[in-house]
Amino acid sequence: MLLSATSQLMKKQLPARTIDNLIPPYKNYEYYKDCDQLPFRFKANRFDMVNAWWLIEASTLVYAEPEFVTEKFQKNAGFAEVKFFEDSTTQCFVASNDRFAIVAFRGSEGRLREGDSNPGYIWADWITNFNFWPEQWNHGGKVHRGFKAALEEVWTDLAGHITRLQRKNLKIWLTGHSLGAALATLAADRYGKAQGLYTFGSPRVGDPDFKKDFNMNACRFVNNGDIVTKVPPSGMFRHVGELKFIDSDGIIHDDADYREEVNDASQRDLKKIFNPINLTAKGFADTLLDPLIDHAATFYAIHIWNSIPEVG
To answer: According to the CATH classification, is domain 20-306 in 3.10.20.30?
Structure first.
């Protein structure tokens, strides 16, 4: 896609690396800005950076309240229909038009929702995350017990809706960030007919047998030192999907550069710890905060936007 000089899409600046910019929802973020110039390539059967941007936008957006999410999907991204599926620990949106649908799972919540003073759903998300004992998966191998139980909460209604959309010849894409990425991975494997799966900041989901049996068009993004991508323990679980690693300069590397994921994050943190200038309470605090900041969905979204070839 060639853009004229007057319609050149500009790179975005990252927000300040603060705790306020870490915890969703991100109400001030401009969702799907300029998406009319970069349409979703819904028939793609291999990695596409434009599609990655559409899907991280969805994964970031769905942390907000249903009314806000629905408005942005419809007015900003041009989806005709938005369905919301919810239970005690699981929330999922399906945005569709006459060509494709995006199934986006919400990740772990860290703030009270507007007008709600009960933090029970926040605790429920974290209980789900820590309930990681392996449990048998009907499609092969074993998976994280908490993630499996969370998907079961909405699966019957969600699968029925997706099936109806696919009968209309819509291409089905699944996505999510953090906990949402884990649920999207299980949903994609269970459904088995999706056009693609893109995840962002995903924890590990299944054991080696699950990984061996997992077979679909899938990509997973890891932003530098993102701590969530390091759990649960690698001895019990494995990642799935083609790795796209974002280094500290915002450059996205392919699977072949996996060693750079470890080296880049580790070297940065070691320099902070052992640099005498940084050996202060603030320096240690920054070192601990960085892996959490790297997990923020908006950082994924901006790095991916800036990596689209048409953006300059």
So the answer is: no
